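Troubleshooting log. The previous structure file for this entry was overwritten by mistake, so regenerating from the original sequence record. Sequence copied from the archived sheet and checked twice against the printout by T.R.
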Amino acid sequence: MAVYDFPFTTPHGLPPLQAAITPFILLLACLLVLSYIVYQRFFSPLAGIPGPFWASVSRIWITKLSWHGGTHRVMVDLHAKHGKLVRIAPNELSIAEPSDIKKIYGAGTKFRKSDWYSVWQGRRKFDLFPERDEAVHSQQRRLVARHYSMDSLKQLETYVEDAIVFFFRRMEDVRLQGTVDLGKWVQLLAFDVIGEITFSKRFGFMDVGEDDGSFKQINRALRSASWVGQMPWLYWLHDWLSPIIGSHLAITARHGSLRSFAVREVEARKDRGSDREDILSKLFATHKEKPGELDMTAVMSMATSNIFAGSDTTATSMRAVIYYLLKHPQYKQKLVSEIDAARKDGSISDPIKMAEADKLPYLQAVIWEGLRKHPAVGMSLPRTVPAGGFEACGRYLPAGTVIGTNPWVLHRDRAVYGADADDFNPERWLSTDEARVSDMHRYLFTFGAGARMCIGKNIGWMEMSKLIPMLFLRYDVRLSRPDTEWTMTSWWFVMQSGVDVTLTPRNIGDKVY
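Regenerated output below.
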């Protein structure tokens, strides 16, 4: 046979050399994958720490969980099964040991926020929530913290009252239609309150009974950040390509359309002025005093953060308190009795003042328990182990390991909150055991902890302290479907739906509400 008669392809249509190399490449790829899995399972610094198999070898597991919105439930179940330390990614752990949690999040900690937060910050230079450099965060927080203090917010209390009074005016309209979606209405209220205290103007959402599309944008951004943050390289690749491909990740709304909304409100506020010291006027004053530290870009960032987070966190907490009271009528009745007694002896006003609400112990216990039972955040608060490593639950973790606690897990710790930690029981906060109550407060992570405590927590506390007692004073509130459970989805915030109620005016003494 002549040389040119030899075949130049295999029976499969591949050149001889390629046919020989292809199986080798496939075998090599399989060996590399197998080696990686063996390393993660048996030789990694985190090897042997229990958790889902796929979580130990790929971040796809935690990314998928974050996409579907079930982290608040799954993490509780994982810790119930595996104990205080659970592996949730190749280089990430979830921890539920209070003594170690105190070291991770306590004052002076060297644990920095993980790269998960970079997705939230994007290219912003001034952004308190996701800022990972502790020195920068500390400097920025000092500039604005006093504007969010309770003493400062009490100067705006009357405007919060105006919004709440208007809320009840609207309840008189909508209750006549039958079932009231109270979960939606408290969010409309919370958003309008942000307008009042930040821009000296309600956004008008309660007037029309709907938002302007902002809630959908915020929810889409929350979901996007929740899962994209598990693979932050994806966000930065998208950011690099966005001039060519456009914007396709909803988290960019936090830096785009929602920021534009805030810019419009700030400019409108400048044009019309204000006769009150709202948050924006205080930020303007700080900008004028220290323009090099708090420039107008930073002012816009704070206004955007108020809008983005201010309504969801407060609405989530108010829904929780109301829902669990309605699910547990025995506690609701005790609260109503306390409110009625305070009204009868003249120790509360209509609308109630913060100083008066602070003196109602059962009300305070109910709020604390709602925040414990349903913390707004349902995902881990990830931190990076600093140089020198860290020992958690007796296990050494090298620098660079990501570790965090999920408030839903911590708030169900029986050693801290008692054997009935899974139950709604406001009376745990009225215990005469001061040391126990102190520990319960110390490990309550609804607003975060340490230097990273949520700067807006006083806004939410004021709204809850004023709305909840007035709601149960004015109305007999009942779930329209008492045997049906609400639904919850955790995309950073654990949002609820299904707080549908009937409102019947109460006849109290000489006054019918």
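Residues 56 and 90 are 5 Å apart (CA to CA). Archived copy saved in two places this time.
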